[in-house]
Amino acid sequence: MTVFTVPTREEVAPANQAIFDNLNKALGFVPNLYATIAYSKNGLERFLTYQNARTSLSNKEKEAVNLIVSQINGCIYCQSAHLVLGKMNGFNEEQLAEIRHGKSSDSKLNALVALAADITENRGNASEKNVDAFFSAGYTKENLVDLILQVSDKTAMNYLHNLTKVPVDFPLAPTI
C-alpha cells in the first residue's frame, strides 16, 4: 500500500504554503490531516472554506456531530482531535464519552447525536423515529440541512485519515 507522509510547507503549492502560515499563526501548528489535504493544489483552501462556512449549528453541536461521526467511521485521528476540541467547546470527559457511545444526557443534544449516528451508519437513510425526535427536540429543517453538511465534512476527513493513516498529532483518543 502507498505510504503517505505529511507534506512539509516546502513540498506544497504556494497557495497552500500561505494557508500553512495562517494555520501556524492561528493554531500554533498545521494539523497533519490538513497538511495531507495540501497534496491537492486546491483542496486545502476548498475544504477550509467549506468547513468554516456559517451554519445554524452551534460550535458545541458541531463538535458532538464531529465526534459521533468519527467514532462510527473508526477515524482515530478525528476522534482524538474532536475530544480536544469538544473540551474547548464546553464538554467534560463524561459528556464526551456519552457522545462517543451515541447518546447525551441533554435531551436536545441526544436527538442530534442519535440522528447524526443514524445518518452516518445508514448512509443518509435515517429512521423516521430519529428524524421525528430531532424535530421534536426543537431542531428545524435548516438544522437538518446543516447537520447533513456537517456529517459530510467530517466523513471526508475520516475517509482521508482512514486511507492515509498519517500520524495523529493530538493526544490519542482512548479506546471505548
Spans of at least 5 consecutive residues with low confidence: none
Q: Major sheet, described briefly?
A: none
Order of helices and strands: HHHHHHHHH
Q: So how many helices? A: 9
Q: Which CATH architecture of the largest domain would you pick? A: Up-down Bundle
Number of domains: 2
What's the count of strands? 0
Fraction of residues in β-strands: under 5%
Mean pLDDT: 97
The helix fraction, in percent, is: 55-70%
Q: What do we call the CATH homologous superfamily of the largest domain?
A: AhpD-like
Radius of gyration: 16 Å
Q: How would you characterize this protein structure?
A:
This is Carboxymuconolactone decarboxylase family protein. With 176 residues, this protein is mostly helical. The chain has 2 domains: 9-51, no CATH class; 59-164, AhpD-like (Up-down Bundle). It is 64% helix and 0% strand. It is globular, with a radius of gyration of 16 Å. The mean pLDDT is 97.
